[in-house]
# Entry
Amino acid sequence: MLNRPRSSAPLARAGGPFDLKITGATVIDGTGTTGGRADVGITDGVIAAVGDLSREHAGTTLNASGKVLAPGFIDMHSHSDWRLWENRRAESKIRQGVTTEVVGNCGFSPAPVSTEFLDDLRGFAIDVPKGMTFEWRTFGEYLAALDADGLAVNVLHLVGHGALRIAAMGFARRPPDPGELTRMQKLLADAHEEGAWGLSTGLIYAPGSYAATEELIALARVAARHRGIYASHIRGEASTLLDAVAEAIRIGREAELPVQVSHVKAAGRPNWGAVERALGLIDQACAEGLDVRADAYPYTASSTTIRTLLPDWALEGGIDAMIARITDTATRARIRRDIESPGDGQGLVGRVGWENVMIASASHRKDAEGRRISEIARAAGVDAVDAALELIVDEAGHASMILFQLDEADVRRALGHPRVMIGSDGSALSPSGSLGGSKPHPRSYGTFPRVLGHYAREERLLTLAQAVHKMTGLPARRLGLRDRGVIRPGAKADLAVFDAQRVADLATYEDPHRYPAGIEHVLVDGRFVIKDGQHTGSLPGRVLTPP
Ligand code: ZN
Ligand code: CU
# Structure
């Protein structure tokens, strides 16, 4: 491995020529500094030299004149841990230039699993793709199964608090007893020893929402001992946003570990504008010496499971219990009251409006996909609450929705903030995959090109180098991923070559299954996964474990 200054002229390289040389591109190295023209030489999957390599030999030379060469993008917040099982080629991600995904977010992860509560964990998933056998129990067994057949992208896995809680106590709506808490801590410690990078929570989702702050601190301390991070879908993103950010910061302070506020946003018109104050709390925490960061996606709609429409008490005991409650007349009336009552968290519809809730995917009710709940209700001649509850029952809670509920100015504030990195909150999808006919949020296809094209080039919210930094060097540093996210000798050759004039997202809410424009070549560990805009079928990605 060579370690040379960028400007070095002729480079004689012990051990022969480069496997690959990428010449003539503007190299934006991921550190946030403006790029300059340079060649990059790659040997054995590692960047061997950066500079003028015109006199160096290489097995293959790729002329990238006029293009940008950047580190492969790191998706700081992904849910591909489920979809990769049927899409190991990671189509919609790799075609955006993403080479590493951080998965296991929002409190969800497919492991660890206890035999006793296996069905509860399965019920938790929006949809379990083919190949996802749940034959594993430990986190290590699961990671080995995910890694076994290859992946197009690298994966860093967090442990979902929801999975830990389900493994220890199912969907019980109460604090853990001391034995259950110890069990969760042990499962988390084991997961860290087996390759996890941290703990994630989803505090608006049952069973995560059943946990008090003290339980989370007790777990986060275990993650801290293993140098993990704490990534949180915080307890409220609407009127309680600031309290929820404060809770995340408190967990970081008391458990002494880095905090990642996931997909920072202010949901619902009455709360628009609050992102600035949320970011202010993060800045204040950093000024105090804490390590708090956030991520965001470049869209004004969010997306989640339709179960989120329900009050969280309705999920106690799991999916079957939830359905029984919705179908029982008296309990259904209580659910309706909670849905219609204003307030935060579960009072979601009051602040959003049924006309702003679109069904994204519903495997039994295909007719509902792409339609607003207000419209579905009108067509069926029922009121919106009934239409939504019927859908939840028909789908056994396994459907997703898109909520048009965010403010463009808030999105811009988040994307523009120096402590915010880019996370899609989406998954690796493909038009021919099992969600191919449905209308998932376009973020799974467009997040990274949208930041580069729309927000950097067109809107000039960020320079290109800043935008690249938010999707490469910044998340790499946050994760302690020392050899990726930057272009320098010695780093792994995860690279993206794109056309800065043309890069753009093409996926829309109406037509989401569209790959972006302008991403020309993507390499993972020095191997082409995208070459001239085409997927090579190569699967060089690995499940990465912490150093
Ligand atoms: Zn989330
Ligand atoms: Cu998420």
